[in-house]
Design a protein that fits this description.
Layout lengths: L5 H21 L5 H24 L2 E2 L2 E2 H23 L1 H4 L11 H30 L9 H28 L3 H15 L14 H4 L3 H13 L12 H25 L3
Antiparallel strand pairs: 1-2
Helix pairs in contact: 1-5, 2-3, 2-5, 3-5, 3-6, 3-7, 3-9, 6-9, 6-10
Length: 261
Amino acid sequence: MQPRSSLTITKSVIFALTLREIRGRLNARRLGTFWILFEPIAHVVGIVAFITIIRGRSAPGYDVPVFLLTGVVPFLMMKNVCLKLMEAVASNKSLFSYRQIKPFDAIVARTIVECTISACVYIILMGGLGLFFGYDIAISKPLEWLGVLVVAVMFSFSMGVVFCIIGEAVPELKTFFRLLFLPLYFMAGVLYPVWVMPQTILPWLTWNPFLHIIDGLRRAVFENYPETPGVNMYYPTAVTLVLLFVAVGLYRAQRLRLVAV
């Protein structure tokens, strides 16, 4: 019998950690399968319902529920990936005594779980809007949408790895990282169109990569979506590549400290 390759072992470990992560969430409380989807769905529905009642049924040329869902769900996915990865090493410390399991495996497994949950939430909510309320939920440019989504996942993954390594070195900063997403949420154009922002503050807001990603997703979903000068996918893509390089470098430098029990 030939020994398994490193790639085969890594795939098996990630698969096992993914199942362990899902099982842990399902068994965390009664009706775990229900709560694992109901909590994010209730969160999103509450935000969408509140904003829809305030602003009315439609934004300029777009249905408010569809407009909001295309921003709220991806942002919550990126936020959850970042914050869950921040705790990936601390939550799996006992497993690193096994030679085959590395911190990177736990990080990848959590990314898969969070992206899968967000995908289920998006499909359920968008399907409900289309089937029961008659909204147009079609994606105008599906390939562009997928491309922006890949950048979103890689950006949040890279940020999560950086948060994880810094948080393990200075645990007090984890609270700061959690609070950081509150202003980012309101500065990312999740609840309102980018083009309605005052031109005096828009140049400052464009430093936020989340704003470009959310606007890029909406530009791919809606046909004839207006382009805002200075808002594009070049900036978040460049930031993602740099952040990914930094994350890999930090992980490489700190990998032995991360596995210390």
